[in-house]
C-alpha cells in the first residue's frame, strides 16, 4: 500500500499543471530509445496501457488509451493519469490530440480507469471507471470505491463528464474490483459488461442495462460455463459476430496448463450462441486464448461503418518490466485486426489499410535444407511478411527474424512437422523480458499440409498469424538495430518456402 | 537406404578384427572431450544407446548397452555393433568387460539390438533382437527380418548364443518392426513383452510366453486403453510393483500436446491392475511421461536381491546430434533410480549407493530476493544437491546451475508460484542441442507449499527430481568447464531455501 500512497503524493490533476520542461524532458529521453516503433501506436513518454473508447465517430476513428506520461519522471516525480486521445482516418496514421480525459473529479481522482465509447446522436458517449480510495490518510486501511462514470464528447472533442455516477461500487456480494465497462447497443437498449470480483475472490463479468444512459440496472452476471475462472476478469467485451455471441475478457490468476496460460495474466474469449440479454445466459464452449504470444492484454473491439469488427489491444502486460523503461516509456498497441468467426473460432487479420504503409516489395521462392539461407529484404524491421510454407517433407523448418549477421541472435520460429507443433523462441533475441514466464510459446499446428504465415514486424515487435489468423502470437522484441536479417533452414528433409515481403513506412 | 548400405560395407563381426590402433585412435580422441562425465556410465568411444540385460547375477550387477565403439571412425570407417558389458558390486563403480555380444551370426548379422536378461539356474539367460536384412544387394528393396534370439552367459561371462531363433518376424499382421524383448518370470512361466508395429503402422506391445525358454507362444497384444498410440513402441517393460501392474515403453510418432511429448520420441508408462498374463488384458489409466526432461529414452528395469526395482535408461535420444560427436562418442546412462508407486504414479529416486560417491558437503540456509545470491559449493559440477524451497511468498524463484561468473550463462530452473509451474530452460547453457524440439520443459507444480528438489549434476548432465521424484527431468548440458557456479534469486517477494550439497567423486 505504501507504493500506492507514494504515488499519489505528487499527483496532479492536469498535465497542463506540470512545468512544460518536465514534460519535455520525458519526451526527449523517450526519443532517444533505439526501440521506437515505426507504425505501431506508442506513447511519446510514460506508460501506455489498455486501449479505451475505440470507436468511429465524426468521420474518423477514435482511440484512447490508459496513459501516464510522467510515470517514470524523477526529481520531482509527478503522477498524472488519464486517457490519451488519438484520431485517424485510416487506422494507420494517427493524430495525437493529447489528454482526452484526466483524473480531475471526485469520481475519478485516483485514476481514470478503462472504458469504452459509443456514438449517440451527434456526440460520443464515454463510459469508464473512476477509481477512488477512501481513508487515504491511514497507513494501510484504504478502501477502493469504484464509480462507473459517463461523459459526452462533442465533435470538437470536448469532453463533459457527468457528475452523477452511473453505478457505484462495491456492489453487494462483490469487492471493490469492479471496472472496465464496455458499452453496446441492441434493440434500442444500451448494455454494458464490466469486470467484477465476487466476495469469494473469483472473477466474473456483470451485465448492466439502461434505456437513457443515466439510469442503469443490473441484469446480473454473465452466466457462462466458465464463470469460475481466475480471481478477477478485466476488460470484458461482448459482441455478436457472424451469428455468434462472443465474450472476450482477461482473466487473472490462471495457472499454467501445458502450453496455455503462460503469461502473468491471460486473454481470451468464450464463443457460442448469442447471449440472452434479459438474463445474462450465455450458452458457449470452452475458453480460448485470443493471442498466444508473450505480450498481449486488455483487448477492445469496435464496429466501424464498413461493418468490420476491429480489435485493438495493448502489446504488453501489467507488472512486467520492459527495457524501454530506461527511456521512461513502456507499452504499445497491436496493429488493428479485423475479426471473423471461422469453424466456431475467432480468426484475426491485420486490417487491409496496412497497404497504405507498403513500400518496397521483395519476393522469394526457396527450397530449404540444412544450409542457412538469408531471405532478401530491406535493412529495417518494418515489414508485412506473407509466407507459404510446405515443410511436410522435413522434420522441421526454422525461420529466424531479427537476426544478426552470423545468426547467433534471432527471434526463432520453429515449424516442427514431426511434432506437429509451432514454437516461437525469444530466448536469444536481445534483452530478456519476463523470462520466469518462459521463453517459448507454442501451439499445435498441422504441418502435413502447406501453411500460410503472416508476420507484422516492427522495430521492437512481431505479430505472427498462422493459417489466416487461426492462431496469433504477439510479442515485443528488444534487440540491436542491426539485427534486421531473416534466415531460414529445414532439417532432415527439404521444405518449400514462398515469401512476399512488403517493407513498411513509418506511421504519420 | 543408401546410408544403411554404406554403413554395412565396412562391417566387421568382431572388434578384435579391427586394427588396435584404429580402436585406440577413437578412444584417445574421446578422452580429449571436456564433457566427459564423472560418475555416469558412458562409452569410451563411439555410441552408447539403450541399456540392455540389466540384471543381478553371480553376486554382481550386470549392465549391457547398445554399443558401436567405432561409430564415428573415419578413413577407414568400421561398423561394428553389439552389447557392451559392465559389472558392478554397488551400482556406482563399474568394471568394463568389453564386448558382451557381437553381431557375428546369421541371426544378428546386421545388428545385435536391444534385449534383457534373467538369471536361470547358475547362468544368465539373455534374450535380444537380432536384426537382419534380406536382398541387401539391391539399391532400395531391402527387407527387415527380425529374430528374437536366446543366449546363455555363464559365471565366467562367456556367452553361448542359441542358433535356433526363439521367434522370427515379421509376424502375420505386423511389419518387420518387432524387437526389444523384456523377459520376466511369474508362477514358473517365462514371459516377455516386445515392441511391435501393426501392418496399419500403429505401435503395440506383444506378450509372449514359454515354459522352457526355447519354445515361445504368442499370448497376444497387451490390451491396454492406449493401444492406438504412435507408430511404434520401443523397449516395452512390464513389471509388478507395490501391488500395481506397470507397462513402460517408448512410443514413437506422438505429436506434442501442450508441454507433453516435446522430445523427438517419448518415454512413459501405463499403470493399473496387474496384467492378466493369460490374455494380455491390462486394466490401466492414462499414459504418463516417466521422465519429462530433454534427454531420456529406452529405459529398462531390474529387481535386485534386496527387492528393489531399479531403473536404468539412456540419457539421450535417437536421431539427435550431440556435441560430443566431435570427440567421436555420444550418449550416457542416467544414474540408477529406485522406483516405487505413490498415489497411483511411479516415483523415482537415485539409489542410496550414491552415498558411496559423497565427498565434501556444503550446507546453506538462505532468504532469497531480487538480489542474486551464489550458493557455495566446490568448483566442479559433480554434485548431489538436496533443496527445500518455500517460494509461496514470491511470484517466482530462479535457480541457476552450470553458471559462469556473471551468470550470463546457466541452466535455469524456474519455480513460478504465480503460475504454479516448474520450467527448466536450456537456451542459455553452452552448445545448443535439439533446439527445434524446444528449449524449455515444464510441468505443473503446487508451489503454495514447501517443495523438495533433488538434483544430480555431473560434468554434462542434470537429473532433477521434484517432490521425491514425482516429476523427473533429465538432460544433457554442454557448457564450458568453468561454468560451475550456482545462483538463486526470487522475484516479487522473498523465498526460503535450504541447500545440502554433496560433491561427488568420479566413479571407478
Automatic annotation (TrEMBL), chains A, B:
Q: What is its EC number?
A: 3.2.1.26
Q: Name one GO molecular function term.
A: beta-fructofuranosidase activity
- The UniProt entry lists the main location of this chain as cytoplasm
What CDD domains does the entry give? GH32_ScrB-like
Catalysed transformations (reactions): Hydrolysis of terminal non-reducing beta-D-fructofuranoside residues in beta-D-fructofuranosides
Ranges that cross the membrane: none
Alphabetically sorted, this entry's keywords are: Carbohydrate metabolism, Cytoplasm, Glycosidase, Hydrolase
Its GO biological process terms?
sucrose metabolic process
**Matching SMART domains:** Glyco_32
Listed Pfam families: Glyco_hydro_32C (PF08244), Glyco_hydro_32N (PF00251)
Q: Name one GO cellular component term.
A: cytoplasm
Q: Where in the cell is it found?
A: Cytoplasm
Q: In which pathway does it act?
A: Glycan biosynthesis; sucrose metabolism
EC supergroup of this enzyme: hydrolase
As for family, the record states:
Belongs to the glycosyl hydrolase 32 family.
Q: What does this protein do?
A: Enables the bacterium to metabolize sucrose as a sole carbon source.
Q: What protein name is recorded for this chain?
A: Sucrose-6-phosphate hydrolase
Amino acid at each position: 500500500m505504501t507504493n500506492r500512497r507514494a504515488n499519489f503524493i505528487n499527483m496532479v490533476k492536469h498535465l497542463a499543471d506540470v512545468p512544460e520542461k518536465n514534460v519535455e524532458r520525458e519526451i526527449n529521453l523517450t526519443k532517444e530509445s533505439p526501440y521506437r516503433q515505426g507504425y505501431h501506436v506508442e506513447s511519446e513518454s510514460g506508460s501506455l496501457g489498455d486501449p479505451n473508447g475505440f470507436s468511429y465517430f465524426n468521420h474518423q476513428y477514435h482511440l484512447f488509451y490508459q496513459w501516464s506520461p510522467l510515470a517514470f519522471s524523477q526529481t520531482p516525480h509527478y503522477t498524472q493519469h488519464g486517457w490519451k486521445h488519438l484520431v485517424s482516418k485510416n487506422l494507420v496514421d494517427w493524430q495525437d490530440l493529447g489528454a482526452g480525459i484526466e483524473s480531475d473529479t471526485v469520481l475519478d481522482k485516483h485514476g481514470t480507469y478503462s472504458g469504452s465509447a459509443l456514438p449517440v446522436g451527434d456526440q460520443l458517449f464515454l463510459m469508464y471507471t473512476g477509481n477512488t480510495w477512501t481513508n487515504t490518510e491511514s497507513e494501510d486501511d484504504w478502501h477502493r470505491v469504484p464509480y462507473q462514470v459517463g461523459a459526452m464528447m462533442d465533435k470538437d472533442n470536448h469532453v463533459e463528464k457527468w457528475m452523477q455516477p452511473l453505478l457505484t461500487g462495491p456492489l453487494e456480494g462483490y469487492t471493490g474490483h469492479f471496472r472496465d465497462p464496455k458499452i453496446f447497443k441492441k434493440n434500442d437498449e444500451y448494455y454494458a459488461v464490466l469486470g467484477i470480483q465476487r466476495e469469494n475472490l473469483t472473477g466474473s463479468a456483470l451485465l448492466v442495462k439502461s434505456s437513457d444512459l443515466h439510469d442503469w440496472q443490473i441484469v446480473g452476471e454473465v452466466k457462462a460455463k466458465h464463470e469460475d475462472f481466475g480471481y478477477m476478469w478485466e476488460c470484458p467485451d461482448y459482441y455478436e459476430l457472424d451469428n455468434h455471441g462472443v465474450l472476450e475478457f482477461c482473466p487473472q490468476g490462471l495457472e499454467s496448463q501445458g502450453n496455455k496460460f503462460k503469461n502473468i495474466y491471460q486473454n481470451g474469449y468464450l464463443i457460442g450462441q448469442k447471449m440472452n440479454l434479459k438474463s445474462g445466459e450465455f450458452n458457449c464452449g470452452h475458453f480460448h486464448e485470443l493471442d498466444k504470444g508473450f505480450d498481449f492484454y486488455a483487448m477492445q473491439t469496435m464496429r466501424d461503418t464498413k461493418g468490420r469488427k476491429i480489435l485493438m489491444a495493448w502489446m504488453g502486460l501489467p507488472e512486467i518490466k520492459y527495457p524501454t523503461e530506461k527511456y521512461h516509456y513502456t507499452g504499445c498497441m497491436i496493429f488493428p485486426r479485423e475479426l471473423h468467426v471461422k469453424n466456431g473460432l475467432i480468426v484475426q487479420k491485420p486490417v487491409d489499410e496496412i497497404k497504405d504503409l507498403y513500400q518496397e516489395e521483395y519476393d522469394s521462392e526457396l527450397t530449404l535444407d540444412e544450409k542457412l539461407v538469408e531471405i532478401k529484404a530491406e535493412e529495417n524491421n518494418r515489414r508485412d511478411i506473407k509466407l507459404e510454407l510446405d515443410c511436410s517433407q522435413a522434420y522441421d523448418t526454422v525461420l529466424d527474424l531479427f537476426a544478426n549477421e552470423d545468426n547467433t541472435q534471432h527471434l526463432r520460429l520453429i515449424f516442427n512437422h514431426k511434432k506437429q507443433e509451432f514454437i516461437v523462441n525469444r530466448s536469444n533475441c536481445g534483452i530478456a523480458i519476463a523470462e520466469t514466464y518462459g521463453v517459448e510459446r507454442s501451439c499445435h499446428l498441422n504441418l502435413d499440409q502447406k501453411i500460410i504465415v503472416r508476420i507484422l514486424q516492427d522495430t521492437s515487435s512481431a505479430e505472427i498469424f498462422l493459417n489466416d489468423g487461426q492462431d496469433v502470437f504477439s510479442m515485443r522484441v528488444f534487440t540491436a538495430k542491426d539485427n534486421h536479417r531473416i534466415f531460414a533452414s529445414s532439417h532432415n528433409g527439404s521444405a518449400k518456402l514462398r515469401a512476399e515481403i512488403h517493407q513498411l513506412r513509418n506511421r504519420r
